[in-house]
Records
---
Amino acid sequence: MHRKIIRAPHRLITRFSTLWRKRFGVLPMRDAIDDVTTWFASPLGKALVEAEQQAIADATHSVFGYHLLQLGISGQLDLTEASRISHRFALHPRPEPNTRLSALADFNHLPLPTETLDAVLLHHVLDFSQSPHHLLREATRVVIPRGHLIIVGFNPWSLWGIGSRLAQLFSCKARWRHQYLRLGRLLDWLKLLDVEPIDIYQGFFPPPLPQEGAIKHLQWMERWGKRWHLPWGGFYLIVARKDHVALTPIKPTWYRYRPLRGLAVTRILGRVTYSHSVSNQAAGANAKASERSLDD
């Protein structure tokens, strides 16, 4: 009876945690793709994507290389048009009408060799991932040393974050059930992966209102937020560089060493070399033997 009383609070907490994750937790990415893709086609989603695409264009303008990979929650968006990198392609868990889509893949297990890409764009995939740290590590793995990561995510410390929290209380849609990754937390993860942030940008300062008229009326908030570089943008964009430098082993230079004086025999490079002391001893022995022969 006493054990049952002790276990009761633990079971209650476990059951409450399960119900909380079922109601407010992040859904599997495959289940969230349809709703988020439809939401990106709404007036609010279009305004957000337009602001993000402008920021991505400014970020990729200074990123060079040969291969650029886009990983996004929506497979229908092409966000790398302004990039100077010639080979731009995308991976996605589901087939989508996108000319950049090259293959179907799980973001947590990318079918790419280690250190093969010059840049990787992560568009809200960390927000809608149930294991964002593992996904970030996998994206870092495929980037070459001195390559770049471009990360776009929702800022929880903003009007957008407050609005999405309120919307989550009244709606079960996947568009509001995402990770609330703080910028500082993400920067700590990058530091652990030896990735250095070189530029941080924030945008979309109005609250997430679905009416198109309200979005246009609140454009003054966007202008003032950009002018004063306020830290309350609805999304943040991080341009980070992988600091891991590939090492080239240097082979040691082998020299031909001379035998040391005073040693009887020195073996170097498979040959037996006699030292001067041994040769002198042998010469003395031969002289003594010749003297004995003369005496006899």
---
Amino acid sequence: MDKKAMYKISYGLFVVTAALAGKDNGCITNTLAQVTSEPNRVSLTVNKSNLTHDMIELSGCFTASVISTDADFSLFKHFGFQSGIDVDKFAGFTDFKRAENGLCYITKGTNAYISAKVVQTIDLGSHTMFITDVTDMVVLNDAPSATYDYYQSNIKPKPQKVGETSDGQTVWRCMICGYEYVGEELPEDFICPICKHPASDFEKVGAAKEEVVPVGKTPEGKTIWRCTVCGYEFEGDELPPDYICPICGVGADMFEKV
């Protein structure tokens, strides 16, 4: 079987928000879908390891902001590449307002939001499917909705040349603490701002020492498996068949060998 056939299914992308005990949280998902028009119901499938899952399960409601083609990668990074268990995703975040149900909806890089109330849950093992009644829906603008394919082709950063930034500048890495200096030349009198070691303890990233590492391997020779949804990388000769991405919650079938 060619697992990449699954990538041909068209998905929308959403920031799903929920709240519990005074804390707001949100995550990126592609699993919102309308299931009936009368009554107007949508389904949402969420990985049980996500904090948003527990908030929806206990509160019984959520709001889904529809991501548009105006969104940039920072939105995905903010809501998809960190866990609400570890950080408060709305601390210092200002691109949101409150829907009628009191939950946050995202105002930048989105074109609509849908609020819903849970009427049924279906246990799918690693995930829960929430069947919900739509309680509110608002169109914010006319920007086209972003699909998973659009994200892969236009929003997700393209792999950049080893040892260079996205704008082509050279990277120099401190061999003591890992601090990286960006610039064509490292000043001879440069002092690492972290560990205070001199320029002699820096190496040019991508120099011969690193270039001999085979593509898809770590310097120790381990195989790299990359999540095709969020870019998270797993290191190991084999990817466990029951592996779940710790960032976006997809299964092993959404990983590819680098």
---
Amino acid sequence: MSKTMPISEVKTRLPELVTGVAEQEEEIVVTRNGKPAAVLVNFAEYERLKDSLDVLSDPSLMSQVRESRSFYSKRKTGLSFEAVFGEPVRLRKRRKR
């Protein structure tokens, strides 16, 4: 869940806020003059966001995504994860919101 805080409060509580962001996956929207100016997120979430942006900004990968969507929208079946990678899917824990 995200919180919104003015930069003046963030300055005084930064160590505590960083601990909360790192341990509890909180998100903090930092405002300046009442307008959003920055966001504090934990490093793992930042890495996931960067990875997603890398995929979304790669025309070749996005072309593959569109082709896959078209393929599966026609109710065709492809190979399973296990058939492609030789191991079963291991589901990750969903992050708290």
---
Amino acid sequence: MVESFGSHSAHEGYEGSSGGCDWLFELYTFRMNETVHSSRKPPKRTNDPERTMAGIIAVATAEFAAKGLAGGRIDAIADATHTSKRMIYYYYGSKEGLYLAVLEDAYRRIRATEAELHLADLSPVEALKALVGFTFDHHHSNQDFIRLVMNENIERGAYLAQSKLIQELNVSAIQSIEELYKRGVKDKVFRKGLDPIDIHASISALTFFNVSNRYTFDLIFKRNGQTAKALAARRQSVVDMVLRFVSYSNPS
């Protein structure tokens, strides 16, 4: 470095340059800066597997929701998360393993949010209204969830069937409905003889359709069902339909 510093050799700067002292000062400054910078330790790489995996799941959710399992690309997920295919395979084993992890995470998140409704603190009628309204809002705000479920149904549930968690993740959904339904029957505001799973299916069907069929439905009937006014009206209709389905009636 001394022999080739700047545009002069060391000999030229010392013997022939009128600015010899300037050359020495520049060399000294360069050496000092080199010493200071070389003594600095490179920043430590953050080792946070949970954060890395959460980022991968978030990006993979959008990728698989938009393109399905067949169309989703690990390369695109790796690029978007600034990771590598090798790292993704290390965490999830395969593309199919990542896809299954995305499905499980989607169900885990909706069930965790449902738990925050504290339905047991509400009257049976108000609890059912809150649950139906929440489900409608969740599906509208998390349309990737709907598309993931649609894509997995195209796969005929082949990958979700491999999950060791999916039944456990969804037990709480049925338990919540069963508990509020039993309270409603006891209070004589809900009719007897209904299956909590059937109630859950009715809620899911009514709230799912508004997202899954929004484009074809609006196109066929030349309407915009996604305005704030239309969504509010549809939400109320769904709540009312479910409530009337379970409400107590005394046939004459």
